[in-house]
Hints:
The chain is mainly alpha-helical. The protein has helices at 3-14, 21-30, 35-46, 58-70, 74-86, 92-104, 108-117, 127-139, 143-152, 161-173, 177-189, 196-208, 212-224, 231-243, 247-259, 267-279, 283-296, 304-313, 317-329, 336-348, 352-365, 371-385. It has a domain at 340-386.
Amino acid sequence: MNNSVKEVEKALDRCGLVLNDDFVLELLKWHRSDWKSALRYFYWVSKGGRKKMYSPGSSVYNEMIDILGRMKRFMELGEVFDEMSGLGLVNERTFGILLNRYAGAHKVDEAIEVFYKRREFGLELDLSAFQTLLLSLCRYKHVETAESLFVEKKNEFPLDIKTLNIILNGWCVRGNLREAKRFWKDILDSACKPDMFTYGIFINSLTKSGKVSTATKLFRSMSENGCAPDVVICNCVIDSLCFKKRIPQALEIFKEMKERGGCPPNVATYNSLIKHLCKIVRMEKVYELLEEMEEKKGSCTPNEITFICLLKAAKKPEEVRGVLERMKRNDCRVAGDTYNMILKLFLDWNDVQGVQSVWTEMEKNGVGPDQRSYTIMIHRLHKKVE
């Protein structure tokens, strides 16, 4: 151990800290991007800390293992894990972290090996643990391996829709629609019935791939198959229809959401419609929806995204002032980026009073002016001089 490390440890000893897991965890989290400092402090706590009648628990060891895994320091991780094992502190969370970090480093064989190590610590190789392994592999795009394991172990673990959803989502996240379609058909041919998550995963993938008609058709089939869509799935279909300029169809689904019990629209639903209606300048319909949001409140209360759509569609200063007034009425705080956007609009319109009022308001509310604000001012004024 070099002198600088010894000096740090002596300084820590002199601090007279009262150690507990919460305090140690906070310090480790503070150093998540500096694994050397975190590990130095961890070793001081786990060894020297005992003089203060404190021994770190599972949560502290798990945090240190997660930091080392994130930074791909697997030799040091192994040392900490061995120490943890000797103290009998290994738990389910430990294995979840190890699987995630080995898969994230593309150490697939090591991740599978960790899964089987559970037996050494008295933990079962059950369906839940197997799903955690598959989830970790799929998260880091090792879907082929995950599906091969699933097929290989089909007689060891019961067939479960959650397992199928993990692999389907893996293919969808990979952006491999061909494999996702194949696996979707496998699910339909299996003894498992697709649930809302299965539909949601596949519909989302279809919309991202531009297959909006197929996605809408599948969406329509959900209720027929006894699986009513939730607001997230409805919003996904509405947004994709709007993107393809099929707004009448989107409004039809929106109307059904309002009329049908169990799946009322939320602020995201309204924002999708407002964003696309603003683009085609159907402002009468936009303000009709906005008034509806203000009446309903709760999960439909307009937010900054709503008002940014309106600001982008503004054609004159009076409209911007109206939007700002409406934001205040709805207790919607104006962020620095929004002020900068408004500043740009007023400068483009040569509205000196508007520029001054925005600048003053930014200062008053403590959200600027920032570097971006000055850049906008300089660029716009320079342009006008030219």
